[in-house]
Amino acid sequence: MYWWLALVFIVLNFSVRAEDGRTPIPQHWSFKTPLGTFDKKELQRGFQVYKEVCAACHGINQLRFRELEKIGFTKDQVKALAASYTVKEEEDADEEERPGRPGDRVPSPFSSEKKAREANWGAYPVDLSLITKGRGQGPDYLYALLTGYEPCPKDVTLFEGRSYNPYFQGGQISMPPPLIDNIITYHDGTLATIPQMARDVTAFLSWVAEPELENRHEMGVKVLLFLLVLTGLFYGVYQALWKLVR
Amino acid sequence: MNNNKVVQWIDTRLPIFTFMRHALKEYPTPKNLNFLWNTGSLAGITLLIMIITGITLAMHYCPDPEDAFQSVERIMRDVNYGWLIRYIHMNGASFFFVLVYIHIFRGMYYGSYKSPRELLWILGVVIFLMMMATAFMGYVLPWGQMSFWGAKVITNLFSAIPIVGDTIVHWLLGGPTVGAPTLNRFFALHYLLPFGIVAIVCLHMVALHQFGSNNPSGVDPKHPSEQIPFHPYYTVKDLLGLSIYLFVFAFVVFFAPNFFGEPENYNPANSMVTPVHIVPEWYFLPFYAILRSIPSKLGGVMGMFGAVFVLFLLPWLDRSRVRSATFRPLYRPLFWVFVLNSIVLGWIGSQPPEGIYLIIGRGATAYYFFHFFVLLPLLSVIEKPLPVPDSITLYLDQKKRAV
Amino acid sequence: MLYKIIREHDMTKKQADQNVQSKERRDFLQLVTTAVGGVGAACALWPLIDSMNPAADTLAESTVDVDLRGIEPGQGKTVLWQGSPVFIRRRTPDEITYAQNMPMDTLLDPERDEARVKKPEWLVVVGVCTHLGCVPTGQKPTEPKGEYKGWLCPCHGSQFDISGRVCRGPAPTNLQVPPYVFLDDHTLKIGTNEA
Questions:
Q1: pTM (predicted TM-score)
Q2: Is C156 part of the annotated catalytic residue set?
Q3: What is the CATH number of domain A9-63+106-211?
Q4: Which of A27, B246, B316, B363 is the most buried (most CB within 10 A)?
Q5: Do C35 and C64 fall into the same domain?
């Protein structure tokens, strides 16, 4: 009976949270399963979407250029990429600007929240480094949001500069639909449809948020297997010993 | 006695080996303890895990609003195995509370708080209180949105105290609102308190060993044959429990590390924007529900603290001479109602305080105190306990026959 | 014969044998379990220990560019690289000759000057005494340089020549040469050997 109640508890929990915005439809992600890994090709495409579309307004400040080597870029590509950005020396009081190096963080498009709001009619394009961890049902939510723009229903009055997106809290989002078919040309020739780009960039941002994920899964399997064996052994010792008491 | 000369030399001067032999090896323990009796040692081990991972994290963490969030992310990304240590510490808090809640409910079911174990129980409640303070301050450290607003809401509770409330809040925060001084002192105290918990745990152990463990029958052991030495029987049983526990723990850490957490705390603290749903960590939810159910600021705060402090009085509220619920036909169902009521309170704590939730919450809050202040004293008078066996041996025979 | 019969009929003895057997099995199982558990505990310690090693961002490429313009022959410049001072010295022709002709038996850690520089004119060494880590004096014209025209450690009196080689103890080894590269005639990059 108590388990049944616990179940009710969980269901009610979700149904209430859903009022915040339409519940995202769960998608299949290669990295969501317990043994899941990232698809490097997908991540590279996702980085391209980020760089050519999102980066105009959103930062991924937690990421350092050198980490892009882990998703399949070469050392030289990373070096060239870093050098194409202008960064400010973090420790230098003179704030001298110089070309980026692989060890630098990816610079954000705006230097402060205030400047970001000024440039975006008061709205703040959040940093995307942790976006999939910082929203409930992270990757599903992000995918649903990117593909979920709809014509505004008749009974809703849109505020100026807002777009209608039922997945966003309150339904009115300051970000105009960012993806348009073929807005970018993929280096690997993949067709740049909206769902394709949304998938790729979501996967990429999931990696940015949890770069340890593959490591974690791999180590987890080993640890669990070990503990399974250990538990079996302890159970044997326990049974053999307690037979004497019983 | 050990034959090793060095051990003997030390033990004559500092009898730690004798002490350990008494406490961990010979310590006579009832032979009929079930697996619920594993929770104590497991909680102790979890405390150790928390302290070890905590010290490691403290080597990389910066308690400054400018750097705190960033330093935690640096631990997650750049520090070797930082993500592992942080996830262990983060989930360890939840697992610690799971164990302690089971431990507390076990004590309630088997009447472990009754004479002569009142002080043992009270020390346990002190540990529980210190854990809550430690967990709360620890949750503030990553300086995410929930950290910040949780700190703000909980410290503001003290403003409910008449006259001196605001002064106390300013003193706690070190400023007009949650800020750099708050974070810094929370870090200092979060580091300190666990060692205080260790000290109280030691006293808890001393009190435990005075009369030994209670057992499912609630009857004191009367014959040496009803007891077995702690080692190897219970050390092995505890290790088996530990292994299973670590399996579950590791599963969460490696495959669902954010299961207990709130996504909102991965957004950096912003003093200008309050998250839509402020919820404390799950282990505070029942108390949070009580706080919100009482429609007066001071009343809510008193209700919340009262809900914990009433546990101190439990040994004197329940006057029944029978310990184990097994022999208490009325208490047993009411115990389960109480457990259920606590779960309902937890669920209400996670919901917005409006409409039907508010009504359920008030009912559950009322029942919580009704259980302690009315039902328990009443039961002591009106309940007719089942015949209690004279010894553990008779109890076990009875059980065998029932099967 | 009689003994054998007795033994065959002695059930308690048989049971005792069984007990011995099961005890042996139990002991073996305990041994295996202890070993496996011990290995597990040791493995669990490693992440904690390794977390105290330098983190990825600390290890990641860290370089310092130095502008060499304005350093006259015989002068030096000290820059900070990875938390330690690096001595850069523009040596005069006399100093170069002196360093190159230093008799090897004067040196405690014999090493040829040519092996310690990329351009004889420029000496680049980490300015940390190899004894216990103090910063030797001698970079400024006013500071004592010791008897070998180089540096003198104020803590325990180690002396280094103008090639950073130790000539008098207690320092056991020469001043360390960091990885560096000349980007052009007047820019030096410390921390890497490749441009």
A1: 0.89
A2: yes
A3: 1.10.760.10
A4: B246
A5: no
